[in-house]
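During the first year of the project, the team set up a workflow for recording each protein of interest as an amino acid sequence followed immediately by a discrete structure-token representation. This format lets reviewers and collaborators read both layers of information side by side without switching files. As required by the reporting guidelines, we include two representative entries from the current panel. The first entry is reproduced here exactly as it appears in our internal archive.
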Amino acid sequence: MPFPVDSKGRTALAIDTTSDYLSLALLRDGKPVASHYALCGTRMARTIFTRMDELLAGAKLTPRDLHFVAAARGPGSFTGTRIGLAVALTISQVTGIPLIGVDTLRLLAEQTDPNSVGRFVAVLNCARAEAYHAPFMRRLDGRLEALAEVALADAPTVLELAGGNPIVLRRFEPVTADLAGLEALPRVPLIHPFPDGLCLLRAALPLLEQLGETPPPRVEPLYLKSEAFRTWRPHAPGPGH
């Protein structure tokens, strides 16, 4: 599938560890050249370095060849999100390249068909009877615009906020939220089956372009259920941790 964003010949690495799946993708000279999407679970910290090194070596690149690194910042798994952000932040600090953080709901929105114009809601189930949600607008030119910040609410509230608009829905295990009403809403057509590293690159590029010469803001994890995450401090995990 052609990359639909003007990437200006950039080379970049995407890292998403917000679920039980390790997702990596590599952009070289403006074109996607490699990706990895596999179930890791508790092996995330032991696996990420090996898979990342394999991806870069296969494209004959090193971290210092990258123009930026993109990382999913949640909401999602507490431990997984921390691992991915710590690795991405370490690469950014060592190489001096920008780190661009992307919300998980934005990644879901990036799965949708750019020809499907209008308002829709990205929804991600949460523990307990709650779901994360964020409204988006797909403009006539295909541009994706976030209409509000990611929020957390019970399923009936999310259903009311959706207001009959179509949704893109992702369900993590274990599924505890009662999403029956949401399941009945129309779905936005998808062009990408998973919110993986390629979606992350697609979402990060326009965010990088919007910054211009301005340094990107510090990337903090987004985990709306926990006060602990609001005082999170990065620590890169080593192999075996």
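The second entry, processed by the same pipeline in the following quarter, appears below.
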Amino acid sequence: MTKTVAITGATGNIGAKLRGHFERLGWRLRLLDLTDGGDPAVLASDLTVWDERWASQLAGVDAVILLAGEPSPAASWQRITRLNIDLTLNVYEAAARGGAKRVIFASSNWTMAGHRFDAGDLPTDRDPYPVNPYGASKLFGERLGRSYSERWGLSAICFRIGYCQRGENLPGPHMGWGEWGQAMWLSDRDLAQGFEKAVTAPDSVRFAVLNLMSANPGMRWDLDATRRVIGYAPQDGHAPVLTSEHRAGAECARETRVTITAAENLLNQMRA
């Protein structure tokens, strides 16, 4: 069945990959990004500023895919506030006002980054643990999706997206964050399948936060809910390949996290 889908952040890494996949399906697309890159099919739009010109592009669609925003985990609160909070609010509001059926929000594995050195699986109902403004803003976007679903009837599916690189996106030891990074690899094929199934999921799916990674052997990210809610069936997987440099880097990061956690606990005790 042909779908009409609006993609914000359409010229970025994930946006371009989804555009190609959806075009092959024959779906009707409305493409928005901050700049059009010389592509007449893309509407250049600053989504941090409300404008009926871009808001009207989200009206009546089967799904709004919300990829637009600041992509860097190292971004400052100043950039995050404008690009990942103000912008996200505007897109949800435009989707709800315009009668879009669903928003598919690109959340992030960074909402759970503080659990990197914990034990146990990482289902999406485990307590969130962002460690930077970027991760906190993605958690905000998830909660905003729940709010719009409960109060305005807008279906919202939020994907905690794994590690999807630009270009060929091949897995391996070149990826950042050692075992943690490789274990959440998301292939282009699984990325496309996940978003396609989110668009076509039944209307009964009113709100869901779902992990979106490939089926990487031994990973902690729990895909059970993703399989159950939208029928996701990952086709790819990669077992991490670790070097001595990876192990040394992981140990340094672990020690840093222990120090930060101890400082946080001390501050909490002093405030109590």
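For the second entry, the following points were noted during internal review. The chain has eight helices and seven strands. The chain has two domains: 4-241, 242-272. Both points are flagged for discussion at the upcoming steering committee meeting.
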